[in-house]
Write a structure and sequence with these properties.
single chain
Length: about 425
């Protein structure tokens, strides 16, 4: 019994001695050297492998840049139109019979009352007749002619053109003198002019509103806001009050300085009716930050979908190439295992190769994405905007894709037995 115990002790000592004689594993320096040699051994295969990752990272970087740039550009347009417009309308409540009843009325001198408010650049009063008048290009109607819808009629103060940022294609817009005298003059929107067959004003053409002749002095070509005016006949406000049964103004349009919306929205009802400012309904610009966030979110959804699809393809490409590399290097793996490399050393080598490929793809993708963003911005004459963290995040995502793609091939390589590999 004592002899068996002595032999067991001698066997354990010889086993420890033999294990100590074996290399302790692969050093970090050798592991990194082998990783870079493995990655760069086949440049053509590396380039093909990187394409998917590069496209994915480029899409992600471009997503961030395009979303921020587009939201900035659209916000500028928003500031140029909607953010510079405030409208005031009479409020309404439901009466006992279920009909809407106005809680206040806009005074006829509303333009003068709000013109001195801070931030108000232009203001105009708009109204419509109680009953839609009949508009025609000729006074005598042909009973056999097909019936066509008459253009709508708007009554407006002379400041309307500047307030809605309109442009006249021919002729002019009526002025304060026309309005004060109650002249029978009109300005046609381009759609109404086409419907009535009027294309110039040099011969002082006339249109007939309820069989009364009105001289056409101008044709409205475009408006920044109030697009229905392009299909309407516009009459001076005092002329419409006297001849077209206009009893009350419908709304007051104001063109304001950017950022003055909250102040004007608060002060305008007080200027119009100090005793009952709550009787008006005010439409002021919304927060431009909310618009930017909404645009950025919408653009992000589109480009992120493209980027994710490309990244999935890139990850699959890295995994396939790494698996192929494991199959081709079975003999090398077996030899390394026989010389003392541990399973974790083999797994670490292939994981590092995949990680390096992912980082390279991330770096190249960031560069491609930035160049794409700059190219589009130059072509569109935009100011490129991108977050400072976009480039580091792109590289990090590439590294994570490479790491995830290399996990399974690395585990498969680590499970290869030296004897089987050397026999193959």
């Amino acid at each position: 019994m004592r002899g068996l115990k002595q032999k067991f002790t001698e066997w354990r000592g010889s086993r420890k001695a033999n294990r100590a004689a074996l290399p302790p594993g692969v050093s970090t320096k050798d592991l990194l050297r082998e990783t870079f040699e493995g990655v760069g051994a086949r440049p053509s295969r590396l380039i093909i492998t990187l394409i998917g990752t590069v496209l994915g990272i480029a899409s992600l970087v471009a997503t961030i840049g395009f979303a921020q740039t587009a939201s900035g550009q659209i916000a500028q347009q928003f500031d140029a139109l909607a953010a510079t417009r405030v409208t005031v309308e009479p409020g309404s409540t439901k009466a006992a019979n279920g009909k809407e009843r106005a809680t206040a009325s806009l005074p006829w001198d509303a333009v003068d009352r709000v013109s001195d408010l801070a931030g108000v650049e232009h203001a105009a009063l708009l109204a419509k007749p109680k009953t839609a008048p009949k508009v025609a290009a000729v006074q005598v109607q042909d009973p056999s002619a097909p019936q066509t819808a008459s253009p709508s009629v708007f009554a407006a103060s002379p400041e309307l053109l500047e307030t809605v940022d309109g442009k006249i294609s021919t002729g002019r817009f009526f002025d304060r003198g026309h309005d004060e005298r109650g002249d029978r003059v009109v300005v046609l929107g381009k759609g109404a002019a086409e419907a009535l067959g009027v294309n110039r004003v040099t011969g002082q053409p006339a249109v007939f509103i309820d069989d009364r002749a009105y001289t056409v002095i101008g044709i409205l070509d475009s408006v920044g806001t109030r697009s229905p005016l392009l299909d309407a006949v516009i009459v001076p406000l005092n002329t419409a009050r006297a001849q077209l049964d206009v009893a009350a103004a419908e709304n007051l349009d104001m063109r304001i300085a950017v950022g003055a919306g909250p102040v004007v929205a608060h002060q305008a009802p007080i200027a119009l009716n100090p005793n009952s400012p709550d009787g008006f309904k005010v439409k002021a610009p919304s927060n431009s930050n909310a618009l930017q966030e909404g645009v950025q979110a919408d653009v992000n959804v589109l480009f992120l979908a493209i980027g994710i699809v490309a990244l999935i393809g890139g990850g699959i490409g890295i995994a396939n190439v790494t698996l192929l590399s494991v199959a081709e290097r079975r003999g090398e793996i077996g030899l390394r295992r026989a010389l003392g490399a541990r399973t974790r050393d083999i797994a670490a080598q292939f994981m590092l190769e995949s990680l390096t490929t992912g980082v390279l793809g991330g770096l190249m993708g960031v560069v491609v994405g930035l160049f794409a963003l700059i190219g589009v911005c130059i072509a569109q004459q935009w100011t490129p905007i991108i977050a400072f963290w976009a480039a580091p995040v792109g590289v990090l995502v590439g590294a994570l894709v490479g790491l995830a793609a290399g996990t399974y091939p690395a585990l498969k390589a680590a499970r290869i037995e030296p004897v089987d590999a050397l026999r193959d």
